[in-house]
Each structure stands twice: as C-alpha cells, then as structure tokens.
Known about the structure:
The chain has 11 helices and 10 strands. With about 375 residues, the protein is of the alpha+beta class. Strand 4 and strand 5 (about 175-180) form a beta hairpin.
Amino acid sequence: MIFNDDQHFLAETLRSFARQRLKPDYLNRPPGRPDQALLDDLANLGVLGLLVPEEHGGSGATFVDAGIAGEELARGDFNVSTFVQLAAIAATGLRTWATPMVAATYLPKIADGSCVPAIALTEPDAGSDAGAISTAARETDGGWLINGEKSSVTFAGFADASIVLVRTGGPGAAGISAFWVPLDTAGVTRSVYAGVGGEIIARGSIVFDDVFVPGDHLLGEVDAGFAQAMTAFDFNRAVIALSCIGAGLESLDETVDYANTRHTFGKPLSSRQAITQQVAEHYAKLQAARSVSYDTLMLADQSAKHTTEAAMSKWMGPAWSADAIHTALRLHGWSGYGSDHHFDQRLRDVIGLEIGDGTAEIMKAIIARDLFGVPTHR
C-alpha cells in the first residue's frame, strides 16, 4: 500500500502516540471504560471521527485512514484500536441510514468521544448465522418495543448507545431491521463476561425488556438491516485484520531489536539463521495480509464489492498475527514468557479476534462461495 503524504503523517503521528502514550499502560489498563482523558486524546487525534462527516465534527476521511489508525494504535495497545473500529462502524451506519436529527445528535458525540458506540448483533443462539436472530421489535405508538438478548457485544459494559439488529418481519435475513438505541433507556440491562483477554472492551450481553425506541431511530428501511450490517462488517473486517497485524509487526520489531543485542555463545542471536528465518517468514506473511487488507479498504472507498477480500483479510490477519506473536514470545526465551513484555497480552487479545466478527472457517466459506458461485453448505 502506497500512502499519500497525509496518510504517512497520520501513520507516523499515531505510531508515536501509540508507543509513548499507550504502550506503557497496556499491561496495567483497568477493565471497563477508559478514563475520559484517553478518549479525549483519541478524539483530539481525530481517530474517533475519521468516518464522521465534517459538518458533524469529523474529518470525513477514508476507510484506508481508518485502517491506518487501527494498525498504528494496536502497536501500543491492541484494545484501544477497538474504539476506532466501533466508532467507524457506528459513524458509517448513522451517516448513511440515520434520520438527519439522529445523525446530527450523535455523530458529533462519537467524534468527540462523549458517546462510545456498540454494535449488537450476535445472540446466544445466533452467531455466524446472523439471519437467525430472534430479538424482536414490534411497533407501538410513536416507535417500537424491543425484547431479547444480545451476546458477545464489545463495550457492552459501558457503551452509551448501540446499533441493534432485531427481527421486525418474517424468518431469515429479509426480516431484520437496524435501530439506534441509547443504552440508558429503561428496560436495558447488561452483564460483562470474564475472558482471557480484552478486559477493557467489557465484552458481554445486553438484555432488552420492552425497551422503547422512537420511530425516527430506525436506521434505513424496515427489514433492510441485514444488508446494512453486512456492508459495515465487510470494511471493518479489514480494519480488524490491520489492528492484529499492527500488534504482530510491533512484536517482530521488538524481536529484531532483541536478537541484535542478545548474545549467546559469544554471538548475537541475529547471527543465527534459525532465528532470523523465523522472523523473516512471519514478517513476509504479515506484509502480505496487510496488502490484502488495504486493498479491501481501497475497494470500499471506491464503493466497489469487497466481501471476498474482507474475508481474506479477516482470516489471515488475526491467525498469522497470533502465530507471529507466539514466535516472538518464544524467541525471547523465559523473559518473553514473563510479564516484562507485552507478548502474552497481545497474544490473548489477538486470539479473540480469530473468533469475533467471523471465524476463519466462516471467512473461508465466504471466499469459497465467491470462487464456486454456489452456497457452500449445499
């Protein structure tokens, strides 16, 4: 990917911020909503408003810019890059499908960090089969009442509002609608899951018990929500991949520095071909995945089809980054296995994205469907 001058500046600025401001606190950041000072810093850098139109306080940037932000911030703190992803999805949904009033109310808040958004799609019995969701909305005077449970929601513990996918029509994908739901509304309850990584993203469930949503909070048309969600997920799969790749490349950069200074039997580790070839192999694979990811975002910026490329990105980025981080940990020996380095936290965090937003098996099924032109389950 060849960046223009503005994109080079963005990447350099965010890499410096990630290493100086984020990296020192990565292992010690408390669970839950980060302090407002960090959200203010992200807002001042412009990364929360990248996909927010300028008239609503954002920069109206590109999907490629969002990928740069995800990649570079993940070098310092992988979990902080998640705020870029959710802000980008929410901003895309609101600017495209929200009513003017809802867009004007919430887009500036996403850009300035005062509204942390979530996306509620997955359910206890509906994960990759998103067309099987059962959380439902029924019309009432002035709006809709939502009932059901959403699971594995990033920021479930503290998000201020969420795009919520619910059933408003018949079975399957054709009967799903999207709503913008403020999460301080009566009838919303939440719980946060325990997990092996990603503590600060407060992943959990949101239960809706006769939650009233005004009619103007419907995003787009009734029963059109599934297609809207898939549009957003395609570009974000590439941003997810780049966040994983940023963490992987940072781990490899640290390993190069370590191998140049660590001596065994009178020679630096970097003189050992068995060491350097492992790093070279992982570096090449991550650069290949990185190229596919940015190609995906370039297609998205051109409003061109990019579902297959997004699936390639989402499969390769997390899987190959986890492999690279694991190798970096091993090559550092016992110190890499300890708490003095970031490898264990990165590895646990990145593995979570091998699951979230579609597993490798689902991504390969999408690629195969495009190649063979038929549904892969037949």
